[in-house]
Backbone:
């Protein structure tokens, strides 16, 4: 019992678990874009940074309450999501991927060159507002929100676009409009996550939001199982904790991490929980009906 | 007139690119501003400007041809199996390190160093394809991408470990660096070498793809993977060959860039790889002439952008250009339009 | 169907096993520690982009710990280093810093870079943990709080002293100033040099900007050709410095350059060869075995013995001094409790280490003396002048 209490109050675990929660919110956003709508986004970190800088600058210069700043960060990221999405979501597949990657790099360079963000030296002096409770309240809200979105008429339209854009279009869905809406929602979560990140770290540097971070978040979603919320959660938990657990192998750590990525993909190409639908699994367990799980047909 | 010109030139500051257009529209006042006391004195005047322009053009083409060498690897692989091989930049990095080892440890001539780099990179790329990509060829689009990222992280860390740290190593001067003056332009030996080697390799590649049997097989496979295998083409061999050719070019590119920039490090493949990929997409991914065009276009744009005073935005120039081009030509400069199959 | 569910179970169990192993592993460490050692945390990148700084700093720290332990330790306790590698990633650095604090270290040495030091400082200050950075030179570090220190030579201290030397001893009157734009180190140093140059009556006849990783400086050098000047003040890094000087020689300019420790690296003469002969670099640490004496000489010999005769750069020296400085403060305070000994640390005055004398001023910024002005001669840096700093 004592051990459990010390485990729960250990600031290191709290820090790691808080960080995990923050990235989980971003991963849920990307889940909506890539997992549900099937659109590639290799520039998710850019939206994190937009949310982070926007909320941090509001905290520093305007002294507005944190919840407001967090929402403003999310909305700012969503606004840029729309600005980027409107022209670029016409592109498909890898072309969209590379455009978002390029956008991410441009955002990073712009933050390096801006005066108000402290440039390459970074932005310090952000008040600490984030705590584990707040993060997990937001996580819970996000999971609930994404679940509701996914199972609404809107969410089913997004899935229809993922499965077959032309068929969806002929069913009266405007793919561009829906993709932009999905993209904006996904980037909103990224912005919120960035705001929480900024107020946890109290220091921001554009170098933290390069394409490496974008791919890290993509890894969370893909390795967990594209298209499944439990997958995104498991992927984030495993991968954001992996560097901490692999600490004992010291300098071989990143090598093993890279090799693990390859192996995981080879043995579970659909991700850890790819194709596993918990609701169906639960129903099946109840009715003891035997049928193979359905793999999503046209997953990107 | 004079007044307006002065103000304009002052406002433009170092933006030499804009001055090109400006000179055509108002050549007399441009000349005036070149005279002693003119606003342009600081950057050296008109003659200086044209000399600059041609010089920058040569520098841009040199840089661009190294991008093109790497972009070819991306574009060929993509053309055949629709995979963005994110580990291609690491092949280029390993090529550069092989070249460095050859010239410092074995003290060989740079031609042999380039050949050695190509020889090391080819089996590496074939192995990479076998282990990390082939098992995933039939799976989702994102799976091989993640696998490629894993390979990339693995190779970067491996080289860092072997080398004992990520700090850059100096690439020694392997050839006598003389400067040739041609009209207003100064070429260094390395620049000439890069241009010659890159053009030779590209001509050789075009020849291979156009006139040899394996080249035909490559084209057939990229046209229709399934149909090619039904026609008796050993598709796996074609894919391996494609990876090998791409790796050879990247290995050569690595050594040439090492010689040109004089410094190499384990993470050098990341930004160059991304830019080369940009070049491939810019030219129309899947198209070999497109990759060459895209690479050179990108090189010139980057160098000119820096010369025009956007030096702090250098890293963003490639991506900005790419986004603009894609918005108007969604499949790149020489890419075929995507057909939507109903 | 069955197979996939088993696989799923397997993966889930693997994840759980990892989790348990991870928690277990971390829990054991504090138990094993006990009360008879003093733990010093190391925060830095042993992997990733900044690994060179981290590895070298850690080497110096280990040397200091060995020296202290063989001399009987601190307050009767042995020192021990707890490594915290953050892979050169600042969000991971926050985790590692927190982990070091929970492992009950008495002080944290690191990070060698300014950015990560700042984010770690945000965690150390409220946790009442002394953070001594062996490498951060940028602004806004010790301002974070009274638990945050650094032992580096600050450009704000060194650059004016060097400028004075250039004006009074070398009689420079006109200089060209070259800045690497977008590089915060270079822009900061230029900002320090400008008022210093004005103070000692030197005129800046030309100002040029270059880019990091740029290799073609012909445009900038061509415009310098029309000016008369005694030398170049170069505030960037060694790679660009070497290539810039090469271009100057190519265009027939023979002036030498002077710059900060960003130029200090063997790459300067390896790349620059003849073009950088006579160029001057200042740093808080010099490995010239002729002039090195006492502690410094001993340190260099020991480092060479342990590293295949390689010469140390400033990182191991700063790491060494950081541990020594902390140990001495703990001895004076007779305690390894950060809340107690940090006041003694702040009072450090004329403390002699391998990188010279360190005094913390009232803002807790280090004033280091002397500054070693070194010049490139052949394939090494030779001390040209030892400039002492008046406080």
Residues:
């Amino acid at each position: 019992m004592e051990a459990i209490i010390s485990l729960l109050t250990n600031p290191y675990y709290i820090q790691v678990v808080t960080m995990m929660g923050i990235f989980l919110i971003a991963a849920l956003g990307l889940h909506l874009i890539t997992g549900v709508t099937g659109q590639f986004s290799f520039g998710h970190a850019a939206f994190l940074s937009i949310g982070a800088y926007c909320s941090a600058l509001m905290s520093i210069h305007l002294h507005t309450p944190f919840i407001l700043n967090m929402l403003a960060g999310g909305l700012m990221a969503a606004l840029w999501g729309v600005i980027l999405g409107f022209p670029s979501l016409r592109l498909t597949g890898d072309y969209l991927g590379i455009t978002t990657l390029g956008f991410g790099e441009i955002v990073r360079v712009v933050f390096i060159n801006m005066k108000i963000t402290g440039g390459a030296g970074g932005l310090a002096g952000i008040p600490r507002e984030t705590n584990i409770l707040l993060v997990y309240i937001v996580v819970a809200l996000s999971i609930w929100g994404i679940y509701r979105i996914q199972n609404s008429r809107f969410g089913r339209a997004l899935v229809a676009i993922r499965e077959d854009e032309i068929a969806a279009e002929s069913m009266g869905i405007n793919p561009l409009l829906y993709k932009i809406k999905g993209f904006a929602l996904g980037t909103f979560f990224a912005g919120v996550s960035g705001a929480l990140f900024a107020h946890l770290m109290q220091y921001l540097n554009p170098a933290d939001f390069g394409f490496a971070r974008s791919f890290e978040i993509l890894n969370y979603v893909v390795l967990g199982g594209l298209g499944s919320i439990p997958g995104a959660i498991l992927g984030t938990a495993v991968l954001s904790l992996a560097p901490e657990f692999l600490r004992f192998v010291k300098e071989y750590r990143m090598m093993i991490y890279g090799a693990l990525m390859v192996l995981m993909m080879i043995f579970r190409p659909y991700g850890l929980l790819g194709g596993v639908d918990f609701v169906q699994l639960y129903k099946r367990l109840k009715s003891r009906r035997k049928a193979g799980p359905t793999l999503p047909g046209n997953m990107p | 007139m004079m007044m307006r010109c002065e103000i304009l030139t002052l406002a433009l500051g170092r933006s030499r690119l804009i001055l090109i257009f400006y000179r055509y529209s108002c050549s007399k006042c441009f000349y005036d501003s070149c005279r002693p006391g003119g606003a342009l004195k600081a950057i050296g005047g008109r003659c200086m400007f044209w000399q600059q322009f041609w010089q920058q053009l040569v520098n841009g083409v040199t840089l661009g041809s190294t991008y093109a060498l790497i972009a070819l690897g991306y574009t060929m692989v993509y053309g055949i199996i629709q995979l963005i091989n994110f580990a291609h930049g690491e092949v280029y990095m390993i090529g550069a390190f092989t070249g460095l080892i050859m010239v410092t440890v074995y003290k060989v001539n740079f031609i042999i160093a380039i050949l050695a780099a190509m020889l090391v990179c080819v089996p590496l790329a074939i192995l990479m394809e076998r282990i990390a990509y082939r098992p995933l060829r039939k799976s989702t689009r994102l799976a091989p991408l993640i696998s490629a990222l894993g390979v990339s992280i693995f190779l970067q860390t491996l080289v860092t470990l072997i080398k004992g740290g990520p700090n850059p190593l100096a690439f020694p001067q392997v050839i006598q660096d003389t400067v040739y003056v041609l009209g207003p332009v100064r070429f260094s030996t390395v620049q000439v070498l890069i241009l010659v080697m890159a053009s030779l390799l590209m001509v050789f590649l075009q020849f291979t793809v156009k006139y040899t049997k394996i080249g035909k097989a490559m084209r057939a496979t990229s046209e229709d993977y399934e149909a090619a295998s039904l026609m008796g083409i050993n598709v796996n061999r074609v894919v391996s060959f494609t990876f090998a050719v791409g790796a050879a070019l990247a290995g050569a590119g690595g050594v040439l860039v090492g010689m040109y920039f004089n410094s190499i490090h384990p993470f050098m493949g990341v930004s160059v790889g991304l830019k080369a990929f940009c070049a491939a997409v810019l030219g129309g991914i899947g198209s070999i002439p497109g990759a060459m065009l895209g690479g050179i276009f990108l090189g010139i744009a980057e160098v000119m952008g820096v010369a025009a005073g956007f030096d702090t935005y250098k890293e963003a120039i490639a991506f900005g250009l790419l986004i603009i081009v894609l918005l108007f030509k969604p499949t790149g400069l020489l890419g075929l339009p995507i057909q939507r199959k109903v | 169907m069955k197979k996939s569910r088993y696989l799923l179970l397997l993966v889930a169990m693997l994840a759980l096993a990892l989790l348990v192993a991870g928690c277990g592993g971390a829990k054991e460490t504090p138990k094993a520690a006990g009360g008879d050692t003093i733990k010093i945390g190391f925060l830095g990148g042993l992997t990733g982009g900044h690994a060179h700084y981290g590895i070298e700093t850690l080497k110096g720290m280990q040397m200091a710990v060995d020296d202290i332990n063989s001399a009987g330790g601190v307050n009767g306790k042995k020192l021990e280093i707890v490594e915290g590698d953050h892979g050169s990633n600042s969000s991971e650095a926050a985790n590692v810093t927190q982990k070091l604090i929970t492992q009950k270290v008495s002080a944290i040495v690191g990070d060698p870079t300014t950015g990560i030091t700042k984010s770690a400082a945000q965690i150390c200050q409220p946790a009442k943990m002394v953070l001594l950075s062996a490498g951060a030179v940028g602004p806004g570090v010790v301002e974070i709080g009274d638990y945050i220190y650094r032992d580096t030579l600050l450009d704000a201290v060194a650059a004016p002293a060097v400028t004075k030397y250039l004006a009074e001893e070398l009689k420079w009157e006109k200089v060209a100033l070259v800045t690497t734009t977008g590089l915060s180190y270079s822009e900061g140093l230029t900002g320090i040099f400008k008022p210093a140059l004005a103070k000692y009556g030197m005129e800046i006849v030309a100002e040029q900007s270059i880019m990091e990783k740029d290799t073609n400086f012909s445009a900038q050098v061509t415009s310098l050709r029309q000016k008369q000047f005694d030398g170049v003040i170069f505030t960037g890094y060694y790679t660009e410095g070497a290539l810039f000087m090469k271009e100057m020689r190519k265009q027939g300019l023979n002036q030498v350059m002077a710059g900060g420790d960003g130029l200090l690296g063997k790459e300067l003469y390896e790349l620059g060869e003849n073009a950088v002969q006579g160029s001057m670099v200042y740093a808080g640490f010099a490995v010239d075995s002729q002039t090195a004496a006492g502690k410094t000489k001993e340190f260099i010999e020991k480092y060479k013995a342990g590293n295949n005769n390689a010469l140390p750069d400033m990182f191991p020296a700063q790491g060494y001094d950081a541990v020594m400085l902390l140990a001495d403060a703990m001895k004076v305070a007779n305690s390894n409790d950060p809340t107690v000994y940090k006041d003694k640390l702040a009072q450090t005055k004329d403390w002699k280490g391998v990188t010279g004398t360190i005094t913390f001023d009232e803002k807790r910024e280090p004033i280091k003396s002397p500054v070693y002005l070194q010049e490139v001669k052949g394939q090494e840096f030779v001390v040209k002048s030892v400039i002492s700093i008046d406080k």
In short: The first helix of chain C runs from residue 2 to 33. The interface with chain B takes residues 47-52, 55, 181-182, 209-211, 213-216, 218-219, 222-223, 226, 239, 243, 250, 266-267, 270-271, 273 of chain C (CB under 8 Å). Residues 83 and 157 of chain C are 31 Å apart (CA to CA). Chain C has two domains: 36-152+289-360, 156-283+372-387.
